[in-house]
Amino acid sequence: MIVVDTNVFVGACMGTGASALIIRKCLSRELTAAMGSALLLEYEDVMSRNSLFQGCRLDASERDELLDIFLAQCRWVKTYFSWRPNLRDEGDNHVLELAVASGASHIVTWNTRDFAAMELRFPMLRVATPPQLLKELSS
Fold this sequence. Notes:
Number of domains: 1
Order of helices and strands: EHHEHHEHEHEH
Strand content: 5-15%
Largest sheet: 3 strands, parallel
Helix content: 40-55%
Radius of gyration: 14 Å
């Protein structure tokens, strides 16, 4: 189980190789992504920012369809506990909480720095960029 940060999904829409491969592995069920209500709201917010997708290979309806297909493959997890304060950026705490609640092995993000200064540590959870996770999976 992994948690896919929104920046990885945006990267997949933009055609970034490693991000696209992570999402492809989720769609083919080689990887299972956890999803929760707070992360879904963040995905919807980010996907509605048309200016973010300048030069995107997918148009808005294709991005929406990709998101729907991705969400259908995710395992939905309820988060019952808050582990706060934990991260400097309050907006990232829900990602960490979803990872802990789902028993995820990884948070996959391009913003690993955002998770480096956790006050609470969870030994079973690693934070990795898409290329780092792909390298781990191929080992």
